[in-house]
Amino acid sequence: MKGPLERLIRALKKLPGVGEKTATRYAFHFLNTDIKEIDILVSALRQLKEDLKLCSICFNLTDTEVCEVCSNARRDVSRICVVETPLDLMAIEKAGYYKGLYHVLHGVLSPLDAIGPDDIKLPELISRIGQNGIAEIIIALNPTVEGEATASHIRDRLQGKSVKITRIAYGIPMGGSLEYSDPLTLSKAFENRSEL
């Protein structure tokens, strides 16, 4: 089998979690889908790439200058929750417990991969401290070696500043990922966070 169908299957296999069988099933689904539905999907993908950008404050994904979390006047502006990715932010929001602000690092420190503090949004986090009465930084990074190193670096950089630094509780298993945690586990992790 060669041609457009094979090219589509190869392209679909590049998606995370999609193997040969799933890619083939998706390709045949698209083959049997109305062209208007295909156009809607293609348009949505194009709009995603063209319109999404990073929030100028917290670096979450948004289609406006400031995301809806940062622009929500009902949020607790005295707390910033530090996460690795927008997926982590979405998981925490879905749990519905946390009502403060966020800061998305877009990565963690990883010397083996040559990722240092200036390669992620750490300088921007440090500059937010001391603004607008920030009283607490909640570190909600994945419990991995890199996540722990990043948490320690943040703690060290903020020493001497008048801000409380906490880490969410380890209700999330070591080596686990925030985006795959259920809402109850995330809620309990926030409820039982501890100071660093």
Concise overview:
The chain is α/β, with parallel strands linked by helices. The chain is 40% helix and 14% strand. The N and C termini lie far apart (57 Å).
SSE topology sketch:
Blueprint lengths: L3 H9 L7 H12 L3 H17 L1 E2 L6 E2 L13 E8 L2 H10 L4 E5 L17 H7 L7 E4 L5 H14 L5 E4 L15 H9 L2 E2 L1
Parallel strand pairs: 3-4, 3-5, 5-6
Antiparallel strand pairs: 1-2, 6-7
Low-confidence stretches: none
Radius of gyration: 20 Å
Distance from first to last alpha carbon: 57 Å
Helix/strand structural class:
alpha/beta
Order of helices and strands: HHHEEEHEHEHEHE
Q: Report the sheet with the most strands, covering strand number, pairing sense and barrel closure.
A: 5 strands, mixed
Strand ordering within the main sheet: 4-3-5-6-7
Looking at the structure, the CATH topology of the largest domain is Dna Topoisomerase Vi A Subunit, Chain: A, domain 2
The CATH architecture of the largest domain would be 3-Layer(aba) Sandwich
Strand content: 5-15%
Supply the number of helical segments.
7
β-strand number: 7
Estimate percent helicity: 25-40%
What does the model show?
The chain is an alpha/beta fold and 196 residues long. The protein has two domains: 4-51, RecR Domain 1 (Helicase, Ruva Protein, domain 3); 67-195, Dna Topoisomerase Vi A Subunit, Chain: A, domain 2 (3-Layer(aba) Sandwich), CATH 3.40.1360.10. The protein contains seven helices and seven strands, in the order αααβββαβαβαβαβ. It has helices at 4-12, 20-31, 35-51, 86-95, 122-128, 145-158, 183-191; strands at 53-54, 61-62, 76-83, 100-104, 136-139, 164-167, 194-195. It has a five-stranded mixed sheet. It has a two-stranded antiparallel ribbon with strand order 1-2. A hairpin with a 6-residue loop joins β1 (53-54) and β2. α1 (4-12) crosses α2 (20-31) and α4 crosses α7 (183-191). It is elongated.
